[in-house]
Amino acid sequence: MAVPRTIPACFKATGWPLGLVCLVYSSIVTYDTGMIIGKVTTLVPAECSSYPSIAAEAGAAFAAQTGRNQKRWRIGCLYSAAGIQYCTYYLTGVSELIYFEQYMARSSK
Fold first, then answer.
1. Which has the closest alpha carbon to 60: 51, 70, 47, 52?
2. Beta-carbon count within 10 A of 81 CB
């Protein structure tokens, strides 16, 4: 989540050394997960171009290994991942607004 307006407040709360470590760690994790998703999308079928579609194929593969219904698992994982992704985007937007309002309230004092 990119919220540059909260970085000064985070550094004030944690201090510069710990704040920089957390910022660097977060950047590395974000880069690594992006690379993993990129590799997954190039290795699996062409229709796997989003998180829900990747989750659907992972669910179908799990169902195939365990002898369960692949179609049911594919659809269930697709809708579950899409729902989680939507909720995450919504909550990210809400937290961005809250962080911005808190930052503006502190800077106007």
1. 70
2. 19
What is the value of pTM for the model shown?
A: 0.64
Say if residues 15 and 25 touch (Cβ distance below 8 Å): no
Neighbouring residues of 73: CB distance < 8 A, sequence distance ≥ 6 = 59, 60, 62, 63
Q: How far lies 82's CA from each of 36, 50, 58, 86, in Å?
A: 19, 9, 14, 6
The conformation of residue 4, written as its DSSP 8-state character, comes to: G
Calculated CA dihedral for residues 10, 14, 35, 75, nearest 10 degrees: -70
77 pLDDT band, cuts 50/70/90, is very high
Q: What residue type is assigned to position 49 of the chain? A: S
Q: What is the pLDDT of residues 41-71, one digit of tens each?
A: 887 777 788 889 989 999 999 999 999 999 9
